Amino acid sequence: QGSTALILGGLAVKSIVCLAKQKSCRQRWNIRPSEMSINTLNPIRAIVDGMKLTPNPEKPMIALSIGDPTVFGNLPTDDKVLQAMKDAIDSQKYNGYAPSVGYQKSREVVANFYSCPEAPLEAEDVLLTSGCSQAIDLAITVLCNPGDNILVPCPGFSLYKTLAVSLGIQVKLYNLLPEKSWEIDLQHMESLIDDRTTCLIVNNPSNPCGSVYSKEHLQNILSVASKHCVPILADEIYGDMVFPGCTYQSTASLASDVPILACGGLAKRWLVPGWRLGWILIHDKNQIFGKEIRQGLVKLSQRILGACTIVQGAIESILNNTPQEFYHRTIRFLESNSEICFSELSTVPGLTPVMPSGAMYLMVGIEMEHFPEFQNDVQFTERLVTEQSVFCLWLVSASLILFLIPCLVLSCFD
């Protein structure tokens, strides 16, 4: 017993010494960034923000590197939309906190606006978010764990990868086919699916390609998802922003068994990206998501109360009272600018524009052999800035180097 007491006493003394050492260590500054912050990278912003270029002082800057329709003042929202916001402010009903998923009445309004017989919605199927970006963030986060993988279009919106990689989620890029107006290479996409694939992202109408998928193509995409039991995140922020002659259909309206989280918002169609109101529409006809995914989305939304209450108060009037002529006028403007871009760029040897069918962008393939003085697309882009004061974004897809040209700024430079 005496020996046991000595051993125990020695261990106690040793533990006290170790604790004292740990305490002294903690008294030294050793602040490190989190793994999530280290892993977070927006590739486009990283390049654009890091470029130290001086535009040609003799030429006005033409910034084709931004997808904000409000910047140049040539695409204002409708007066009815503005009045709805003014009325919401004057009512003084929306100055406090809203529920994390949004006001019940506002959720009902969004559900009624987007509900259709093929894909019915109720208020409980809608979560309001701080813009479509937060909707995408919540959708990825609720479906995926570190080590899982998601399927992302290439070319595609860079935020998908930024969000996923920061969470330890692998991104697998599936190809889009420029020769088929940026349809998905279904064979390639299917080949990427494995046991840890937890989400397929479908962006239609497309940023940055401007494509609008046909009913048949969407049905083929759904068939692949159904075959492999992979849910879909449908990024439909540009829904209904399609040119005459094209028809937009939501992915959920064609789905029979595939569960879908459809993400959208006010930003693009109503030309108010700074108002930060988006939504997730939960389409789950067969209760495959079940209560768990819905509860997960609610819990994630409670981390930050994101959706602006003033805009929530205005949403009923915005959705129900905005005149159809406003939508038509916006589409005519974008289509006209797209046609100008396509027509003029088609005359340049080495440039191959692809005419969009909707959204706000036009993609241009660059055959680098026509420009031997440049080693790569970055040099080409930098010279555009320094020589011509034209700033574009660039992407690489398969063997093509592509320029992204927003079709919303041209009237400023006529």
From TrEMBL:
<keyword id="KW-0828">Tyrosine catabolism</keyword>
<dbReference type="InterPro" id="IPR004839">
    <property type="entry name" value="Aminotransferase_I/II_large"/>
</dbReference>
<dbReference type="InterPro" id="IPR005958">
    <property type="entry name" value="TyrNic_aminoTrfase"/>
</dbReference>
<comment type="pathway">
    <text>Amino-acid degradation; L-phenylalanine degradation; acetoacetate and fumarate from L-phenylalanine: step 2/6.</text>
</comment>
<dbReference type="InterPro" id="IPR015424">
    <property type="entry name" value="PyrdxlP-dep_Trfase"/>
</dbReference>
<dbReference type="InterPro" id="IPR005957">
    <property type="entry name" value="Tyrosine_aminoTrfase"/>
</dbReference>
<comment type="similarity">
    <text>Belongs to the class-I pyridoxal-phosphate-dependent aminotransferase family.</text>
</comment>
<comment type="function">
    <text>Transaminase involved in tyrosine breakdown. Converts tyrosine to p-hydroxyphenylpyruvate.</text>
</comment>
<feature type="transmembrane region" description="Helical">
    <location>
        <begin position="393"/>
        <end position="413"/>
    </location>
</feature>
<dbReference type="InterPro" id="IPR015421">
    <property type="entry name" value="PyrdxlP-dep_Trfase_major"/>
</dbReference>
<keyword id="KW-0472">Membrane</keyword>
<feature type="modified residue" description="N6-(pyridoxal phosphate)lysine">
    <location>
        <position position="268"/>
    </location>
</feature>
<feature type="domain" description="Aminotransferase class I/classII large">
    <location>
        <begin position="60"/>
        <end position="392"/>
    </location>
</feature>
<dbReference type="InterPro" id="IPR004838">
    <property type="entry name" value="NHTrfase_class1_PyrdxlP-BS"/>
</dbReference>
<keyword id="KW-0732">Signal</keyword>
<dbReference type="Pfam" id="PF00155">
    <property type="entry name" value="Aminotran_1_2"/>
</dbReference>
<feature type="signal peptide">
    <location>
        <begin position="1"/>
        <end position="20"/>
    </location>
</feature>
<dbReference type="GO" id="GO:0004838">
    <property type="term" value="F:L-tyrosine-2-oxoglutarate transaminase activity"/>
</dbReference>
<keyword id="KW-0808">Transferase</keyword>
<dbReference type="InterPro" id="IPR015422">
    <property type="entry name" value="PyrdxlP-dep_Trfase_small"/>
</dbReference>
<keyword id="KW-0812">Transmembrane</keyword>
<dbReference type="GO" id="GO:0006572">
    <property type="term" value="P:L-tyrosine catabolic process"/>
</dbReference>
<keyword id="KW-1133">Transmembrane helix</keyword>
<keyword id="KW-0032">Aminotransferase</keyword>
<keyword id="KW-0663">Pyridoxal phosphate</keyword>
<dbReference type="GO" id="GO:0006559">
    <property type="term" value="P:L-phenylalanine catabolic process"/>
</dbReference>
<protein>
    <recommendedName>
        <fullName>Tyrosine aminotransferase</fullName>
        <ecNumber>2.6.1.5</ecNumber>
    </recommendedName>
</protein>
<dbReference type="GO" id="GO:0030170">
    <property type="term" value="F:pyridoxal phosphate binding"/>
</dbReference>
<comment type="subunit">
    <text>Homodimer.</text>
</comment>
<keyword id="KW-0585">Phenylalanine catabolism</keyword>
